[in-house]
User: Fold these one by one.
Assistant:
Number 1:
Amino acid sequence: MSWVLNISAEMSASEAIKQAVSAGLCFGIVSKHTIELELETKRLCVLDVEEMPIIRHWYLVHRKDKKLSPIAQTFMTFLLNECGDYLS
C-alpha cells in the first residue's frame, strides 16, 4: 500500500507540531523522546506505521577555524567511536 500525502504546512519546532496535533489540525512526525510527557498523559498517541522509523543522517560539526578543547576533542572521539555508523 502506498500513501500520497497532501502537505499543507511544514513546522520545524517540535512544540508547534505537538500543539497542532493536540488541537486536531493535523498529524505530525516527531522524535518519540519529544512527546514522552504527552504519551504518559495520553494527550497524544503513536501510530504504528509500516516502514517507520524514518532514518535520518546526523553530522558532527564544529567551527573550522577554532581548535577544539581537550574535553571537546574527547567527546568528539567518543561520538565517532560509539556512534560513527550514524554520523556522516
Note: The mean pLDDT is 86.
Number 2:
Amino acid sequence: DAAWQPFLVTPPVPDYPSTHTVLGWAAAEVLIELFGDRVRYGLTSLTLPGVTRHYRGFSQAAEENGLSRVYAGIHFGHAVRDGRRQGRSIGQAVAEALAPVH
C-alpha cells in the first residue's frame, strides 16, 4: 500500500533481527518457566496515560511487543519472526541455566 505510513518515525537501527522482539521473547520464556503462561495481568502505558493493555499470558505480551515494531514501521515481519525464534532460544537457555540443581 503506497499510502501506508508508520505510527512512529523509523529510527536508524538495523532491521534484522528485531532486538525488541528478541529481548521480549527471552524475558517471556524465563517468566513462563518460572510462573507458567496462564498469568493474567495488565500494563498501563506511560506514553498514553490511561491506556491499559490486558494479557492472558507472557507469550501474548511478547507477541504483541514484536508486532508493535512492525506497526511502528521499524521492522519487517521476517525480522520479528526470526527475533521471536532467537529470543525464545535465549530465554530457554537462561531458564535452564537458572534451574536448581538437585
Note: Residues 19-98 form one domain.
Number 3:
Amino acid sequence: MTATACKLAVLIHHLLTTGEPYQEPDPKQYEERGRKNKIIRLQRQAKELGFDLVPLEQAA
C-alpha cells in the first residue's frame, strides 16, 4: 500500500510541476520491461545455483 501511495504522489507531483497532461503507459513497453526484469531475475537465480542461462536462437 505504501509503494502505491508513493508512486501516485510522485506522478501527481510531476503532473503539477511540469503542467504536462497524463499519458497512459504504452502496454508494449510495459510488457517488454517486465520481460527484461524476468530475464535478469532468472539469470541471477541460475548463477546462484551454478548454472549458465543461455538464450535460444530466435526462429526467423
Note: Residues 25-55 form one domain.
Number 4:
Amino acid sequence: MIGKAHPSIKFQMFDAAVNHGRGNAIRILQRAVLVADDGAWGPLSQAALNSMQDLRGHNDVLLRFLGYRFKFWARLAKFDAFGRGWTNRGADNLIFAAEDN
C-alpha cells in the first residue's frame, strides 16, 4: 500500500490500520504528508510521502503521523471512556519509534 516507506512508518501504519481501519490510517498518513485526506492511497500520496522522507527524513513523517493520530483519538466521541488507553498506546508507539530508528 505505501510502497517506499521506512519500516518504522510501515509498522505505525499497520498498528493504526488494525485499530482504526485502513481508510482512517491512510487519512492520518495523508495529513502527515500534507495531501488531501481522502482515504485512498494513490500516486499523489505516494509522491508526497517519498518527497517528505527524502527532504526531511522519515522521522519527520513518523512524528507528524503520530501527532495526527493523537488528534484523531481526541476527536472520537468515546475519548472520555477510552482515551486513557489510546493515549497510552500512542505513548508506547512514540517510545517504540524512538527505539526503532
Note: The CA atoms of residues 33 and 48 lie 6 Å apart.
